[in-house]
Amino acid sequence: xxxxxxxxxxxxxxxxxxxxxxxxKLTHTFLTDEDITFYHxxxxxxxxxxxxxWLELSDNNEPSGFIGLDGTKIEMLFVDPKYHRTGVGSRLxxxxxxxxxxxxxxxxxxxxENAYAFYKQLGFVQIGRSELxxxxxxxxxxxxxxxxxxxxYGPYGKENESDFKSF
Length: 167
What we know:
- This protein is an alpha+beta fold.
- The protein has one domain (4-166): Aminopeptidase (3-Layer(aba) Sandwich), CATH 3.40.630.
- The protein contains four helices and seven strands.
- The chain has helices spanning 13-27, 33-44, 88-100, 113-121, and strands spanning 4-7, 52-57, 63-70, 73-79, 105-109, 124-130, 141-146.
- Strand 2 (52-57) and strand 3 form a beta hairpin.
- Helix 1 (13-27) packs antiparallel against helix 2.
- The chain is globular.
- The model is unreliable at 159-167 (pLDDT under 50).
């Protein structure tokens, strides 16, 4: 069945927060409970409305994962643990490419080796590193950008595919 990607609406907030929490508990084992509470509070208090969020809906129309974009920067990508390794994350990245083009960037926690491997497999390469995360906390970030090998569309998205030849 074709999965549906839809824009975020506030009536999805509880489901999105639940996906985020369960995914973080599973994949961000380097965070303490206090750290998770800190970031959860940020999301609950408006961070979800500061980025463009897209959800993939499962066969039963429940969110299976979401991606948050700020322009061409992927600010968040979280998949419900029961849908890990089913293609949800890849499809959300593909959706981001289709609307934003191939100049996607993302920051990944250095300690999250599985996330780094995921992005690397999709064609992202490391372009930098920071000692602190965006909140000033001591969680080093790897700065990644999509290279041409991972590009499925032109630099400006599928609606501008003719621009791809000059990329």
